[in-house]
Amino acid sequence: MNKKMISIILMMLLIAISFSGCFFLQPKGRLSGTVLFIHSSPSVQDWLEEPKKTFVQAYFMFPTDFASDIIFGIDQEFIEGVDDPIRFPGADWMALVGLTRTGMLNIPVGTDESLNGTPSDASVWEIIDLDIKLQPNTWYLMRETADFQSRRFESFTLTGPNVNITIDLSQYYVDYPNYIPIDNRSLTYYVYAIRMSPYVQPGSTSIYFDDVTAGIETNDGYEIILFEGFELQKDIPDLPITLPVTPLSDIQELYWYKENEDAMVQITGNTVRSGEYSCLCNATLDGLGRMKMIKYLMG
What we know:
Layout: H1 3-18, E1 29-38, H2 42-49, E2 53-61, E3 71-79, E4 92-99, E5 104-108, H3 112-115, E6 125-129, E7 140-147, E8 152-160, E9 163-168, E10 186-196, E11 206-218, E12 221-228, E13 257-258, E14 265-268, E15 278-282
Antiparallel strand pairs: 1-10, 1-13, 2-7, 2-11, 3-4, 3-10, 4-5, 5-6, 7-8, 8-9, 11-12, 11-15, 14-15
């Protein structure tokens, strides 16, 4: 078995454990991501009544010494809500993609159980070797499209200097990883970085994202519903969650929140692609207890 195949197998095991709810198997790990809700405009309301395709894209850049084991990426999810779901109360249909700097594309995929209403804990992943090595200090664009009517991924695209790759993902279903206790339907969008122990590689742990764009399919083609370069707020607060069910009205729309309480994310002006600010996601394991579980709401 070659070294690349061994690395892929180890990565799959770590990813599965990272999203698992099993306390005794949980290693130290951090998922640092942001989440933004969109739901109120007439076109989005129409989409939420009859889900179709949607895309999300973002630019990213990492430094020269960025660690090779960190997975980073974008995510878009359709939250069905508890009160009036299309399929299952609290269902969260997740179309997440992630990369490593060594060109491994990571995709959590739906199973028969999750498609029929049993949350999966994001336990089944496909890993595709793009056969590239991403360059540091370089802005790349990643874009992902999914069809929430068929609950399938559609495609992944990566572009940048000397890179223009599109992968057909239509054979894979999106996942239902966890129940979301929010009353009404919404679309959510994310940028993130994740790291798990014990197989960490040397290097730094912070990556920058900028110029996030999202669009939904309408009867007249795609409509852009998000174009945001982290210019409209100075910090990223905790998500205001209350149990047993959070009113969607308690969550500010078109506003970036921490995806989970342990996320290390910040708005920074140090490295930007456009405007004055970008988002830094830091997947460091410093400050986490060895057996502390990752607590996350989305994805």
